[in-house]
Amino acid sequence: MAAAILLAACAAPDFQQPQIATPAAFKESQVPAVQTALDGSRWTQAQVNYAERQARGEWWLAFNDSTLTDLIAQATQANANLAVAAARVRQARAIAGIAEADRIPQVGVNVGGQRSRASNLSLGLPNGTPVAATNVYQANLTASYEVDLFGRVAANVSASRSDALAVEATYRSVLLSLQADVAQTYFQLRALDAELATLDETVRLREESVHVNQRRYDLGDIGEFDLSRARTELSTARAEAIGLQRQRATGEHALAVLLGKPAASFTAAANPLQDSAFLPAIPAGMPSTLLERRPDIASAQRAMEAANARIGVAKSAMFPALMLNASGGGAADTFSDIFKWSSRSWLLGALMSMPIIDGGRNKAAVTRSEAQLEESVGTYRQSVLVAFAEVEDNLAGLRILSGQTRQIDEAVVSARRSADLAQKLYDAGRSSYLDLLDAQRNLSAIERSAVQLRGNRAVTTVALIRSLGGGWGEPPPQVAAN
After folding, report:
1. 188-214: per-residue pLDDT in tens?
2. Which of 115, 147, 261, 282 has the highest local Cβ count within 10 Å?
3. Element containing residue 362 per DSSP (H, E)
4. What is the C-alpha separation between 72 and 459, in angstroms, rounded?
5. Number of domain units in the chain
């Protein structure tokens, strides 16, 4: 009975999964498909290229972009941060292996020899008595084993295994972040390419306007004011294009780092983002499955389990530890006689030790372990709340961007019509050059906004996939990091 009480006292407490209030469905996933804007207009969310059939883990294939697939493959092979995370996985597995080794007896062998001469005094002989030097050769097989009376070894193994699983989940989180960063940077570059193409067309139109106005000025049809404004608009458009080129260069360098390449040796070919039809519609799934899909939540879960097991390690230090030792072999004054039966030697022993007065050290260690468990529980709860919020944010972002895109597409059509009418009126002498410039500026700004919205939708789609843990539907099986 006493032994059972002691075992219960030092064992790690049963792990209690924290209770998290999980909603039945994401709020944004319940928004009606038909939306009504503030002005009363109605629009329907697009449902194209549904991604539910996509293979788990290979979410980028849903975009049907071979360039993106190739970039993610390169990043997975060469990214430095991912290599660091993989090395940490190997370290954690090795530490778990070290803890596992305590479960089996430790066996070793000792072989050696020594030559010594004792003093007369130590032998009780008069001074001056000759004492010969002696040789001793030994060969012993040793074994030791800690009897896990109070669960210290088992709790330490459990904690180490959970630590290794937490590090593996962190690796998957780093991998997912890397893949998402590559995809987002890639789409940002494509959006900049499309915006540059729009500005290049604006610059071409401004150059034609300067050429036409210069000719009309030379003929005396217009004053210098219109020519000066045309030149100003041309220089402004060129300056904006140069500014976008700087942004593109910065994005290209960032993508090179993600791919594990020097920025000087990487060039991303221009590939303007033409429309949003290629974007997959990502199903949000059930909030409960998010807890199983997100690698950061899995890591926090394993950290809780490791902290719980370490309470058992701390408690076991307050109770006796039993160590069994054995050795056997031979000792002789010549090496050839070591293995003779007459030279045999052996030892069997058992040592039980436990603290009596430790100044409260072990009790403080238990308190510290319990506090670490409370900390890991708080971290887990926060991770879950952040995960739910990120999914809601990105679902809302896609919903709102979809409505904005529809409105901006209608605005592009109207602005092009206005610019065409303004050009005809100016050519006919029925409006001023300022009216023409205003219409052209409005068209350029709206076209750039449309391009930026396309880029934002692509980036937000990737962000939604990242927030869903890199997949949708049923959670993928846990795969160990390579």
Report:
1. 999 999 999 999 988 888 888 888 888
2. 282
3. helix 361-427
4. 15
5. 1
Distance between alpha carbon 171 and the CA centroid of its chain, in Å?
7
The reply to whether 434 falls in a domain is yes
User: What is the enclosing helix (H) or strand (E) of 165?
Assistant: helix 152-219
133: alpha, beta or left, given left = phi > 0 and alpha = psi -120 to 50? Answer: beta
Closest CA to 440 of 288, 153, 164, 229: 229
Tell me what pLDDT residue 456 has: 93
pLDDT in tens, 31-86: 554 444 444 444 344 343 334 344 447 899 989 999 999 999 999 999 999 999 99
In the three-class reduction of DSSP (H, G, I as helix; E, B as strand; rest coil), residue 187 is classed as helix
What is the CATH number for 254?
1.20.1600.10
Mapped onto helix, strand or coil, the DSSP state of residue 106 is strand
Look up tokens 């097991």; give the residue.
Answer: 309
Q: Say if CB 102 and CB 157 are below 8 A apart.
A: yes
- Residue-level length of the chain: 482
Angle at Cα 471 formed by Cα 469 and Cα 475, nearest 5°?
A: 85
Above pLDDT 70, what percent of the chain? 89
> Which domain does 462 fall in, by range?
9-78+165-317+363-467
Strand partners, 346: 328
Q: 1 lies in a domain?
A: no
